[in-house]
């Protein structure tokens, strides 16, 4: 955590009464064509500023001082619009020259932390590394972004799900299982607890993959708490020992998050009976995450290259999307599945210029500029595209 902004934002959240995070979207910057200025805030964000939820039929607001990046302050307004057809929260009034509502900020992570009744600190994280570092430091899943940041581990899942998690943990003979064991058991616990069938997954894979990712994250937090609760009660003998334990925890969190997405995507592809290979070797020892239908077909010069598909999986991709450009030279269009919510118009134009085609969970589509939504595939539409090529 060498980046000073990253350190500062983590400390700010930890010292706050309550904090909130969200990806900056096209709706915020005006890229969707709307004229409303300022950050659109999730309906569940009201406790950040108000004592009670906004009521339909009335507007209400609150003026606060916000210090940005530990640098400059704005006198801003949090407002609930409840009159007419409107039912939304906005954070507005930042003054001229405010730097974080530009098109290039789409996809950045906004974090707001309440330090007192009238004073808040806010930070905008730009890079994938900073965003991943923030999520790891505070143990937040990507599915928990766009809401109040949990202050502690909260078991909010159904009792049956928690019981399944604990039963799995009790059978372990190692401190931490492999990422695929973690993903598989979290998914099984979720599917069994909520009676999720293969037919249901085929009906709405976009919804279920997000539920799986969230369930795995809950399992991981439960396991982590189980493994470290006793250790952190004992004093550390040196700063070095403290740093070593902290780094082990952070690195494991990052590693699990990266692999989690691949494991759950593979399960979706299995349920749809798609032919694919993972980590197949292409040119220059490159190993794309998913190659459809097989590396054998890829290496066969007689196989129709228009029916070859490559897919990369990256939880965030603001910086990392270029890594997919040379993963399979024979395939012109590269598909990239991401949990990133919102990417700037300029960056999307560059992606499509280089034939990188985004795939995102359907609920995240609205966070992208309107003019790109028809080009972006959902998981459901991607699966159907692959299946059409394979029949």
UniProtKB/TrEMBL annotation:
Domain of life assignment: Bacteria
Residue ranges annotated for the Restriction endonuclease type II EcoRII N-terminal domain, each copy included: 16-135
Molecular-function annotations in GO: DNA binding; type II site-specific deoxyribonuclease activity
Protein name (record): Type II restriction enzyme
Record GO biological process: DNA restriction-modification system
Domain Restriction endonuclease type II EcoRII C-terminal: start-end pairs: 220-383
Family annotation (InterPro entries): DNA-bd_pseudobarrel_sf (IPR015300), EcoRII_C_sf (IPR038365), Rest_endonuc_II_EcoRII_N (IPR023372), Restrct_endonuc-II-like (IPR011335), Restrct_endonuc_II_EcoRII_C (IPR015109)
